[in-house]
Amino acid sequence: NFEKIYTTFGQSLQKIIPDITANELKLCAFLRLNISSKEISLLLNITPESVNKARYRLRKKMELNSNEDLFIFLSNL
Q1: Which of 1, 11, 36, 54 is deepest in the core (most CB within 10 A)?
Q2: Cβ contacts of residue 14 below 8 Å, gap of 6+?
Q3: DSSP 2-71
Q4: What is the predicted pLDDT for the residue at 12?
Q5: DSSP state for residue 77 in the 8-state scheme
Q6: CB 38 within 8 A of CB 48
Q7: What is the pLDDT of residues 15-57, one digit of tens each?
Q8: Which residues, at least 6 apart from 31, have a Cβ–Cβ distance to it below 8 Å?
């Protein structure tokens, strides 16, 4: 359903990060929907700490500064 609503989201992310993985795309989709780390951890059956580490690695891969909001960045795609 996410892909039906946000048709160009995945393509936009792949232009920015050509080597993005399927799990990172899924995480970005959850973040775009403004789902909390705790809720994402329940959906993916991982710990909240793992979600936070994945977010950190994603920010590094996107080369975002610490003062840039990941949700706002993903919302603008």
Answers
A1: 54
A2: 20
A3: HHHHSTTHHHHHHHH-TT--HHHHHHHHHHHTT--HHHHHHHHTS-HHHHHHHHHHHHHHHT--TTS-HH
A4: 80
A5: -
A6: yes
A7: 888 888 888 888 988 988 888 999 999 998 999 999 999 999 9
A8: 40, 55, 70, 71, 74
